[in-house]
Amino acid sequence: MQFFLDNIFLILAAFISGGLLVWPLATRGSSARQVNTLGATQLLNAEDALLIDIREAAELSKGQVPQATHMPGSTLASQINEISRLAQSGKKPRPVILMCASGFRSTQAGRKLRKAGIAEVYSLEGGFDAWKQAGLPVSQKPNRGG
Predict the structure, then answer these.
(1) Cα 105 from Cα 55, distance rounded (Å)
(2) pLDDT for the residue numbered 38
(3) Is the pLDDT of residue 129 over 90?
(4) What pTM does this model have?
(5) Residue 50: enclosing H or E segment and its boundaries?
(6) Mind telling me the catalytic residues?
(7) Of these four, 38, 81, 82, 98, which has the most CB atoms within 10 Å of its CB?
């Protein structure tokens, strides 16, 4: 017992680090998978993926990906049925790629879509900023959707 009292901080550190190692395994199926710009373009071209730009209207002044559909993150919850319909519109379910400015909001939104039953959801790593830095097509005319 004296050993535990003398080394309480080391024991707590071991438990916390163990918990941090297990956390990704416990939450693996509940969030959007990450995809980089190369993977996203492959999904768009080979699997007719649905690219949804969840940036807010004020952020569109930086441009937009031409094949992206704009559905602001603030209204995404009310558009889940529409996203599901679009993802199921082909012969087979289409992957859904979410894009925000930097990748943080799209990861959170992807979690909501997964909970709503959309199986193949991706979050674009680095978001629109990464897309633009990669030199991929950007339009100044937003493609409004939903």
Answers:
(1) 9
(2) 96
(3) yes
(4) 0.76
(5) strand 50-53
(6) 100
(7) 98
